[in-house]
Amino acid sequence: MKKWVLSLTLAAGVVGLAACSGNGGDTIAKSKAGNVTKDELYESMKEQIGDQALQQLVIEKVLNKEYKVSDKELDKELKKLKDQLGPQFEMQLTQAGFKDEDAFRDVLRLNLLQQKAATKDIKVTDEEVKEYYEQKEPDIDVNHIIVKDEKTAKEVKKKLDNGEKFADLAKEYSQDQSAQTGGELGTISRDDPQMDEDFKKAAFALKEGEISDPVKTQFGWHIIEVTKKPKKEAYDKVKDEYTQELKVSKLDQDSVTQAMKRELKKAKVEIKDKDLKDAVAPILDAPNPEDTTDDLKSGDNKKDDAPATDKEEK
């Protein structure tokens, strides 16, 4: 989730800035104190987020010409996020400032375009993909009930063993937001670094439909229910998907920035608005990692060749 949260409020601003262009004299708000025109709104938004908004719009325009993200790819990625967040998906969009799911899809599409550009020259071997496949476990869907102490956890487990419904007990006992939805956590991944290790270990040891004994984690005591545990798909069916996942896992901020720099230079981007002339400068002026390495090596050599000081000679 964190991969896209930072872009959300900016994306809302981009939509607004684009909507304000054209027909600048049109009145968009009236009051006894005076009217607000599209020009005034545009200038205000440009002053506040202009550089960032224009940067995103330019990158999207450039990448759309060179790379394609199909609706099928977008739907698949969106489903992953919905599965991971479960009932919290809508809340996350609202908190991030998105008007609706369509607005979020636009940002998600841009993220996937950036991924494709940044992974263009990354190579992975068949051996790496095969090893990744062997180690990867399918994601599972889980519910949980979390309480503060072991005594309460055992009490809940006893009620479950006696036939009471998991969702009802989650609403009654659970001490986190998932209580509102009967304990639903959505989909979890074995390799999710944000998920507690003790929780994952207990959850992935369960069979589909099985409920755990009380499990202690850093957050409290859990009762875990696995509602869906898919079988591992055939290697040939997931090879392409896993290859891309591996490539993405090799990305860092520098490699993404360098990819955007390459694409912007190739597109010969020029900013005509003098107020926004530096919109893409942070990307175009970003130093190449190779140059930094060369500078460090050069500095080491200079240090070796420098004359010794009196203190060193002694």
Short description:
With 314 residues, the chain is of the alpha+beta class. The chain has 14 helices and six strands. The chain folds into two domains: 1-122 and 251-302, no CATH class; 138-228, Chitinase A, domain 3 (Roll).
Residue ranges: pLDDT <50 for 5 or more in a row?
A: 1-13, 306-314
Largest sheet: 4 strands, antiparallel
Whole-angstrom Rg: 26 Å
Q: State the helicity in percent bands.
A: 55-70%
Global outline? globular
H/E topology pattern: HEEHHHHHEHHEHEEHHHHH
Distance between the termini: 59 Å
The helix/strand class is: alpha+beta
The strand order across the widest sheet is 4-3-6-5
Task: Give me the secondary-structure topology.
Layout: H1 2-19, E1 27-29, E2 36-37, H2 38-66, H3 71-85, H4 89-96, H5 101-118, H6 126-135, E3 140-147, H7 150-161, H8 166-173, E4 184-188, H9 197-204, E5 215-217, E6 220-228, H10 235-249, H11 253-266, H12 281-284, H13 289-305, H14 310-313
Antiparallel strand pairs: 1-2, 3-4, 3-6, 5-6
Characterization of the model:
The structure is a single chain. The protein is an alpha+beta fold. The protein folds into 2 domains: 1-122 and 251-302, no CATH class; 138-228, Roll (Chitinase A, domain 3), CATH 3.10.50.40. Helices cover 57% and strands 10% of the residues. The strands form 2 sheets. A 4-stranded antiparallel β-sheet has the order 4-3-6-5, with helices on both faces. Strands 1-2 form a two-stranded antiparallel ribbon. α5 (101-118) packs across α11 (253-266). The longest helix has 29 residues, at 38-66. Residues 1-13 and 306-314 have low confidence and may be disordered.
